[in-house]
Amino acid sequence: MTEVPITRYRRHRFPAEIIAHAVWLYYRFPLSLRDVEDLLAERGIDVSFQTVSEWAAKFGLKFAYQFRRRSRGSFTDKWHLDEMVVSIKGKKYWLWRAVDANGYILDALLQSHRNRKAALRLMRKLLKSQGAVPRVMVTDKLRSYSAAKAEFIPSVEHRSHKGLNNRAENSHLPVRRRERRMMRFKSPRQCQRFVSAHSQIANLF
Predict the structure, then answer these.
(1) How far apart are CA 152 and CA 174, in angstroms?
(2) What is the C-alpha to C-alpha distance for residues 125 and 163, in angstroms, rounded to an integer?
(3) Are 64 and 200 contacting, i.e. CB atoms less than 8 angstroms apart?
(4) Shortest CA distance to 127 belongs to which of 195, 169, 162, 77?
(5) What is the CB neighbour count within 10 angstroms for residue 158?
(6) Burial of 152 by CB count in 10 Å (0-12 exposed, 13-18 middle, 19+ buried)?
(7) Using one digit for the tens of pLDDT, what is the confidence trace for 82-122?
(8) d(CA 198, CA 79)
(9) Residue by residue, what is the 3-state secondary structure of 149-190?
(10) Which CATH architecture has domain 78-171?
């Protein structure tokens, strides 16, 4: 397992290494909370699935933030952007995602719309998190991407073609697997929390 950044967690009964391992299992693989509980039990660690849930919620985003800071500036300058639909309690949301030429996830953002405003928001967040602009941007035919490019990075080459964007589309597969495992996400907040942590942890493997 790739090293996970460890902090000494105050007011927690279990060692930081166990907490980090549980959080890594949950975000790295399509496992339920009870699956993680069982895997830890096989190693003689008695932790309830409720505790694993609390750890995932508390530390997942902290890990993601540390990973993002460490990796900033290390990705390629060719960005693939794509979006997929996610159903949460009968309502349609869109998960916008950006990956580099090697398939590393740059950022992910859950939004309620698939329009110009949503594309602008993704681009703003992406440029802030990366601290750099791409050489090439690859998207599908959604016109909102062209609007975002014109607004923020007008000089960047934009390749708009459905067949060119398989790399970004493939990055959605882990979310689909987790969605099936969890019987769909329970709330937009839960979904965003998961994809934010999962995307950065997945980049390590």
Answers:
(1) 29
(2) 26
(3) yes
(4) 77
(5) 17
(6) middle
(7) 998 888 999 999 999 999 988 888 989 999 999 999 999 99
(8) 19
(9) HHHHCCCCEEEECHHHCHHHHHCCHHHHHHHHHCCCCCCHHH
(10) 2-Layer Sandwich (3.30)
Segments of the chain assigned to CATH 3.30.420.10:
78-171
Q: Read off the pTM.
A: 0.71
The partner residues of 80 in beta bridges, in order of sequence, read 99, 138
One-letter identity of residue 81? L
Structure tokens, 74? 């290390």
- Confidence band of 1 (pLDDT split at 50, 70, 90): very low
Tokens of 82: 């794509």
Secondary structure letter of residue 110 according to DSSP: E
Compute the distance between CA of residue 20 and CA of residue 197 in angstroms, rounded to an integer. 13
